[in-house]
Amino acid sequence: MGYACSDTLAAVTILDKSTVLAGLFAVWDDIAALAAGLDDAQWQAPTALPGWTVHDVTAHMVGTESMLRGLPTPETDVDVSTLTHVRNDIGAMNERWVRDMRRISPGQLLEEFRAVTADRREALTALSDDDWNAATMTPAGPDSYGRFMRVRVFDCWMHEHDIRDAVGQPASNEELTGPAADLALDEMSASMGFVVGKLGGAPDGSWVSIELTGPLARTINVAVTGRAQVVDDFGDEQPTSTIRLDGLLFTRLAGGRTPLDHDAVTYGGDVAVGRRIVEHLNYVI
Predict the structure, then answer these.
(1) pLDDT for 132-187, tens place per residue?
(2) In terms of domains, do 56 and 121 share one?
């Protein structure tokens, strides 16, 4: 999973290591518990990700963590870059891991997931603060290694819900909330300036408020003053456009997992701007 966004580095994002790791470890635990209850047919259920089953989504997460351990990407007997759902180099790399692991059973794959995440827990826990805050390349462009790990929380959390959707086991309100969900939404919020200003084309002078409802309730404010930026509030200004929708639906639209139904979204103020932003909400590539 990658982002369609700027790769210009201004200053790295400094994030609390213990908070991010708590979310990452929690979502790994949730995925392992969910996967342990699946039968063979559910492992082969298609997901919202083109060409990928539940087995493939899990293999992708194993592959990414294996890569971060320093293991080489496996070779395949086909040119994966020619596949219609592979759109970039990151996608090609992901596909090679997925195809390589189709040879192993669901039980073996779950053990691989548990093993690689256990190894990564140990390595991440031992990481120094200097290395945690060091600049590196991330799917969101150059930033801190800590930001990269928040992206990993977002990625894994999204994939947990890919699996849940595929097998018809949606999260309860209690399962939906927690440190991983908070971090995933923090990560998504950080990209909303790009989404509103660049993809959605909100004009200069816009004050856009995205109001998420339900268990994932929060408000994301974006001010377009030359450059669109996420802000805490608009001061004395009122939003020029408001967009109100369920928080989980927001994440699925931003990840390109579900088609847009404008009837599920409530707009206020400049409706045309609001609708255009929602129509371009999918920034994950």
Answers:
(1) 999 999 988 899 999 999 999 999 999 999 999 999 999 999 999 999 999 999 99
(2) yes
The total number of structural domains in the chain stands at: 2
10: in domain: no
Q: Which of 71-85, 97-111, 234-248, 261-275 has the lowest mean pLDDT?
A: 71-85
Q: Map the chain to HEC letters.
A: CCECCCCCCCCCCCCCHHHHHHHHHHHHHHHHHHHHCCCHHHHCCECCCCCCEHHHHHHHHHHHHHHHCCCCCCCCCCCHHHCCCCCCHHHHHHHHHHHHHCCCCHHHHHHHHHHHHHHHHHHHHHCCHHHHHCEEEECCEEEEHHHHHHHHHHHHHHHHHHHHHHHCCCCCHHHHCCHHHHHHHHHHHHCHHHHHHHHCCCCCCCEEEEEEEHHHCEEEEEEEECEEEEECCCCCCCCCEEEEEEHHHHHHHHCCCCCCCHHHCEEEECHHHHHHHHHCCCCEC
- Residues 283 and 254: their CA atoms lie apart, in Å, by 6
For residues 142 and 208, what is the distance between their CA atoms, to the nearest angstrom?
Answer: 26
CA of 155: how far to CAs of 17, 27, 29, 31, 150, in Å? Answer: 17, 10, 14, 12, 9
**Domain range for 119:** 17-168
Domain shared by 55 and 156, yes or no: yes
Q: What would the pLDDT profile of 61-110 be if each residue is shown by its tens digit?
A: 999 999 999 998 887 776 566 555 756 667 677 788 898 999 999 999 99
| Same-domain check for residues 188 and 164 | no
